[in-house]
Amino acid sequence: MGNCQIRFELVHFKRPVIFYSNGYETYIWDDARYSSYRQIYGFYSFKSLENLRFKHQYANKELERNNPDLSIVERPYQIEAIKTLSRKFQDQGRKALIIQATGTGKTRVAIALSELLIREHWAQRILFLCDRRELRKQADDAFKDFLRSEPRCVIGATNKVPTDSRIYIATYPGMMNRFAQFDVGFFDLIIADESHRSIYNRYKDLFDYFDALQVGLTATPVKFISRNTFKMFDCTDTQPTFEFGLDKAIENEPPYLVPFKVKDVTTEFLRDGIHYNQLSEEQQKQLEADLGEEIAKQTTIKGSQIGKKIFSESTDTHILENLMENGIKDATGSLIGKTIIFAQRQDHAEHLEQLFCKLYPQYGARVCKVIHNKIHKVDNLITEFKEPNNDFRIAISVDMLDTGIDVPEVVNLVFAKPVMSWVKFWQMIGRGTRLCPNLFGLGKDKKEFLIFDHYGNFKYFEEEYEEPEDVKSVSLLQSTFLARLDFAKAALVHSDIDGFDIATKLLAADINDLPNDSISVKKHLRIVHQLQQTQLIIEFSAATQHILLDKIAPLMDARVLKEKEAIAFDKLIALTQESLIRKSSAYDTYKAQILTEVSSLAVNIQAVRQKAELIKAVQTQAYWSDMTVSTLEQLRLELRLLMQFKQANTTGGVWDTPTTTTQDGEVQIIEKEISLSNNEAMLYRKKLKEILDQMIDSNTVLQKIRQQQPVEEGELQMLTSTVLSEHPNIEIDVLNKFYGRTAAELHLTIQDIVGLDPKAVEQHFREFLYNHPQLTARQVQFLNLLQAYISQNGGIIIDKLYEAPFTGVHPESLDGLFTPDDVTDLIHVMKPFVKKQPPEQRIA
Q: Which intervals hold domain Helicase C-terminal (predicted)?
């Protein structure tokens, strides 16, 4: 085949793209760009082939040696991320996974990568996928801000999608309903925001269908990303293509995210629950008055279920009062700062809002409002909360503000619910991590935020949490197929001919219902056709049973779920038939369920009335006295379509949660230290700097040293005197001699301790980075290490460049990474920060 390509190229002066197929598997061989062929699930349209030819001719083969648009991304780690991806694509990789903490600019990285690939002719059409409509709007606004000239299309506004846009933005469900409108080669790049296990489990067809470069974005820490997600983006377990996590972002100099303090605030009810027998006499009387004596005496509710099974006014009062008294206030100190309260569910959120209005009528609904998806025009409410200077300060959220919503002004998070998912928990914490300059007045930036944890979430994740296995949930269609498979096996083992015929015919009907155009079905189409066109199911060998269980059952999700209640009844009958054949004790349980289903049919519906005789018979003992699988099958056929007419159970709705005014007990507040990093060296260094760091904001001499400005001898003496007066145990002169410096060089010693202004250092190196767009990802990584080292250590000794951490990037450090000319330029840039080699360091 390679010779054919060469001959074609010699005659037509163009390298051909080859597609080949045996009717089941289809492959593309594009050896002008890739060394190996790959499987695809359709053919390119003529227009997509033209696009591919354009990339052959004009795509920049040295993609890595081009800077992204620095008006979109300016932070060094963002540039490093894009260059790392560029390198992978340049080296024929087609998938990548980026881990970036919430608030570090994942969307900006995605936009800058899109701009670079468009500019360098690697991509003409790009698809950005996200979880929800709110995030879709947020992504659309971001692309509009930074790539205004590129035509965009928000998929979901109409069923028909235009094909002449450059940027396409969609939710995963929205795209699943429409991706068949495009050919497999339509998109050049797919960016998947918040890539985690649900992407793999529910939307994998999207990524298999499109023959495009694919990038996953997630804020989930490495250890909580599933193996399937790493595999999906061609990464080794625990090794993403690029990572910049929460600890790096907070501990960076300058910090890119804000740290937080945790206050574990619990009450007696939240710690121990509400158990009638454990309450005081006074509490018992109040509970009886609220719930009624009979219900009260049976009450036993866990602390985690308060707000779900029962509303405790006293408990929720403590939660709200604690926020108003101890939460971070605004610049005036008179009103609470922007706050998100995470509530159990909608009725709990509304209960908290009503209670707030009762406790603080002077603020009321002007300050505190509920946000959940049942509120009319909830998007407008979210937009209002995002406005920085209005009175809407407390948003009580039910799932709407947990992920993806950016409000930098948020300074308080209140967990008024337990959270069971580590991924979601840290996404929720991410709502407070964003920087917010001048939040408390000019020069008074947001330095931290508070987390009020009322339901022991941090304790749960530290002591009890276990990551769930990465197992896909079984759908109704799949579980029904599996029930029928077990029915067939039981019939075979017990030589029940009628049962075997019924079960195998049902299995065959399910397989015939599989859609051939589904990607998951196409992967196994050869096997599907064999089962459809041969006697394999009737023969029902052990090998066939294994295929049905292992290969075919998971494909049932590709079928369209019609008549959900009817399918559920099908499953129940199959389970009953199997238990009848096996004479299992489960038979009586399934029989009772059938009776319940049949007796719940609405007799006022004409279709039900037409089957009144059968329905009445089913509820007699005589009907069940000599039951067979054939009788059950006839029952299924007669009643399955009537199951849609079952009478709804109107009891136990979400709006009848009882409320008690029973007085809660002791409030307990524990401040928790949350360590984000295990880097002991960093933690130790911070400890040493603590004294001088506390003085920097108020001491002009320290500020001048940090900015590398000249310092007079008298200023140094005054600084020394100030330090000694407050900390008499510190011997600065001895420390100065240790570094081999004179008294006049004391400022250099202090500079070693407090470091340099990281913003100034970053700005100094940014010019070099901008003027050398051809730098590779590893060169940018080296620069990021260099400026971090200089900021932390007040400068650098040249010899240190040939030690760790620099040799971790390349064994020969800068000599192995840069050309001689670039090394010269870099040394010139470093010159203001180069320190002389000290003499042997020892204290006499």
A: 327-493
Confidence at 752, pLDDT banded by 50, 70, 90 = low
Q: Which residue has the tokens 């001491």?
A: 699
The model scores a pTM over 0.85: no
Rg (CA), the chain: 33
- Is 209 within 8 Å of 517 (Cβ atoms)? no
Mean pLDDT value across the chain: 86
Question: For residues 280 and 663, is the Cβ–Cβ distance under 8 A?
Answer: no
Q: Are 72 and 115 in contact (CB under 8 A)?
A: yes
Beta-ladder partners of 300: 275
Which string of DSSP letters, residue by residue, matches 369-380?
Answer: EEE-TTSTTHHH
Distance of CA 80 to the CA centre of its chain: 22
Looking at residue 443, the DSSP 8-state letter turns out to be: T
User: Are the folds of 63-236 and 260-463 the same?
Assistant: yes
Tracing tokens 């159970």 back to the chain, one arrives at 649
Furthest-apart CA atoms within the chain: distance in Å: 108
Structure confidence at residue 470 (pLDDT)? 56
pLDDT at 732 (0 to 100): 55
Q: How far apart, in whole angstroms, are the C-alpha atoms of residue 612 and residue 510?
A: 30
Residue 37's SS3 state is coil
Which class for 223: exposed (0-12), middle (13-18), buried (19 or more C-beta within 10 A)? exposed
The class of domain 63-236 in CATH terms is alpha beta
**What is the rounded distance in angstroms from the CA atom of residue 487 to the CA atom of residue 577?**
7
Tokens, residue 79: 């540039």
Looking at residue 1, the DSSP 8-state letter turns out to be -
Q: Is the dihedral of CA 224, 227, 232, 238 positive or negative?
A: positive
Tokens at 170, concatenated: 């969609």
Query: What region does 512 belong to: left with phi over 0, alpha with psi -120 to 50, or beta?
Result: alpha
pLDDT tens for 731-745 read: 555 445 544 556 566
Distance, CA of 197 to chain centre: 9
Helix, strand or coil, per DSSP, at residue 262: strand
Distances (CA, A) of 224 to 102, 238, 427: 15, 9, 12
pLDDT, residue 348, reads 94
pLDDT of 109 above 60? yes
Please tell me the CATH code under which domain 260-463 is placed. Answer: 3.40.50.300
At 653, is the pLDDT very low, low, confident or very high (cuts 50, 70, 90)?
very low
Q: Shortest CA distance to 73 belongs to which of 43, 101, 115, 45?
A: 115
Q: 342 φ, ψ to 5°?
A: -90, 110
Name the one residue in this structure whose structure tokens are 């950005």: 128
- What integer is the mean pLDDT of 223-245? 87
Helices (H), 126-240: 133-146, 172-176, 197-209, 227-232
Task: Tell me the pLDDT tens digit for each residue of 469-498.
Answer: 655 668 899 999 999 999 999 999 999 999
Residue 59 has pLDDT above 60, yes or no: yes
- The pairing of strands 242-244 and 95-100 is parallel
Asked if 402 contacts 428 with a C-beta cutoff of 8 angstroms, the reply is: yes
Label residue 535 left, alpha or beta by phi (over 0 means left) and psi (-120 to 50 means alpha).
alpha
> Distance between terminal CA atoms of the chain?
78
Residue 214, Ramachandran bin (φ over 0: left; ψ between -120 and 50: alpha; else beta): beta
Q: Cα 612 to chain center, whole Å? A: 52
Beta 18-21 vs 26-29: how paired, if at all? antiparallel
Torsion angle, CA of 820/826/827/832, rounded to 10 degrees? 170
> What secondary structure letter does DSSP report for 795?
S
**Phi and psi at residue 839, in whole multiples of 5°?**
-70, 175
- Report the alpha-carbon distance of residue 672 to residue 620 in Å, rounded: 64
Closest CA to 97 of 223, 1, 193: 193
- Domain assignments of the chain as residue spans, ordered by start: 1-40, 63-236, 260-463, 476-645, 680-754, 758-833
Q: With beta carbons less than 8 A apart as the criterion, state whether 335 and 344 touch.
A: no
As separate numbers, helices (DSSP H) first and strands (DSSP E) second, the chain gives 39, 21
